[in-house]
Amino acid sequence: MKFLDYAIVGSGLCSFIASLKVKKSSVLTKLNYDTSDVTKILNFYEYNNPGGNTNIWGAYINLERFKKFLILNKKFRNFYEQNNIFTTSRISKNSHFKKIGYIQNKKTKKILRLDKSFFKNSINFDLKKITINKNYVDLISNKKTFRAKKVNLCIGNIGLIKVLKQSNLIFSHDIITYEDSSIKYVLNFNLNNKKFYYIPMSIKQIIEKLIYKSNFYNINENKNNLIVQGVSKEKKIFKFSIEKLLNAKKSFHRGLTTNHISNLRINNVPIEKFLRKKSKRVIINNSGTISKYIPGSISQDLIFNTFVKS
To answer: Which residues of 230-257 are buried (b: 16+ CB within 10 A; e: fewer)?
Structure first.
């Protein structure tokens, strides 16, 4: 058994930000690059390899909301300005979409796409369950066990639910609730900004998104868009037992009918608060910890929240 001071579990944007914040950390992540390693259940879609869902959905960011975080927190602003890996950029020069941006690789000037080279001190690991003790937490896979003083779970929502169930921290009869919304594609005129959050997208981007293919933005690709993606600002609340959720046979099409998961709760207790009652040595960073549904881009919240909590 190997001992770790600070273990980050995950492969996406949150684990990347956490690893930048906590220099002396170990990142436990799956490094097999099996393109079929995707979990699809109802509203949940999780790509379980380096980059996570950020590498699929475009790394969109709400520049207006992100700027507020930078003003609010000086330490966060210094972190953002001084890091040499990523920045942000507008997705379109069209004034109607001035707050829509994406996370940009500082070196390549292209959209940020994460791979294992971005994760220092990474260890190939597939978390199955955890055991919580007073002075440490054991992270257990089929082949390895790590004992950590502090654990930052940056894994997807459905992956987290599976780990908690296999750890006997939640059970089949427990009730899961979460918030999500709907998406549609419309012509780029007479837009209703009160009811929808719009993201300009080219025909190529839409096709790639609908087949879950990672896309890159080309210069001027979002300058004069005929079609835009409209994310409803009206949230929907979903409620299932753990058993029904994990045994669901159908999945909704992320990017066509659903936006993203937020406000994940167990028996109406926010997921962070639920786990904090078990141990203060475990923290969670994923979209489910965002306390209320945010239409459209959420990368800005994931980056800020992860920085603050890590």
So the answer is: bbbbebeeeebebeebeeeeeebebbee
| Long-range contacts at 272-277 (CB < 8 A, ≥ 24 apart) | 275/164, 275/169
Query: What residues does 101 pair with on adjacent strands?
Result: 61, 90
* Model pTM score: 0.92
Which domains are delineated in the chain?
2-309 (3.50.50)
Handedness of CA 232, 236, 48, 253 (dihedral sign): negative
Q: 258-287 pLDDT, tens per residue?
A: 778 999 999 999 999 999 999 999 999 999
Strands 227-232 and 183-187: antiparallel
Name the one residue in this structure whose structure tokens are 């003083």: 149
Buried b (16+ CB within 10 A) or exposed e, 138-170: bbbeeeeebbbebbbbbbbbbbbbbbbbebebb
pLDDT tens digits, one per residue of 59-68: 889 999 999 9
Cβ–Cβ under 8 Å, residues 219 and 185? no
> Measured between alpha carbons, how far is 31 from 48 in angstroms, rounded to an integer?
9
Neighbouring C-beta atoms of residue 35, cutoff 10 Å? 9
